[in-house]
Design a protein that fits this description.
Helix content: 25-40%
Strand order of the largest sheet: 3-2-1-6-5-4
């Protein structure tokens, strides 16, 4: 697999991020979310069951949007106890806890999520690992020149 320093397209970045996020955190699922103005595009995922790949949500109605709008990592040990979580979207899935990290500061253009099938409070090591991946992802996005480009048309749905 190509590493982020060698990625030549946003699709390659998504391929790497989704796999690395799971590997680094031991989570049952991971996602790569791209900001499209006032929407979040769930561009790619690697999970034990389908989540939201290919779907778009208003940026104000999902935890990835919250992480990007606030440029802040969200640690959610129990989705049912966090007001930022749209339960209608989450309860039908395996996700019971999550970690969502913005990509690119101070104006995040993406987010990386890790999902667990049980209640789990992300450890400092897991948070640091995902934030490190987010930093490398932001560098890759900046290097390939897509930081200000329209995102979704360049991303293929496999």
């Amino acid at each position: 697999m190509t590493n982020l320093a060698d990625a030549q397209s946003l699709a390659e970045v998504g391929d790497i991020v989704r796999v690395e996020a799971r590997r680094l955190t031991g989570a049952q699922g991971a996602t790569f979310v791209i900001r499209e103005q006032d929407r979040c595009f769930y561009a790619d995922e690697d999970a034990i069951a389908p989540l939201w790949k290919g779907q778009r949500f208003p940026i104000t109605s999902c935890i990835s949007g919250w992480a990007m709008l606030n440029d802040e990592t969200a640690v959610v040990p129990n989705i049912e106890l966090d007001d930022r979580i749209p339960l209608d979207a989450y309860l039908p899935t395996f996700v019971r806890s999550l970690l969502m990290v913005p990509v690119g500061s101070p104006a995040p253009a993406a987010a990386i999520g890790a999902y667990w099938s049980r209640r789990h409070r992300a450890t400092e090591a897991e948070i640091d690992a995902l934030q490190g991946l987010a930093t490398r992802t932001a560098e890759a996005i900046q290097r390939i020149g897509l930081a200000d480009a329209p995102w979704a048309p360049t991303f293929t749905n496999r």
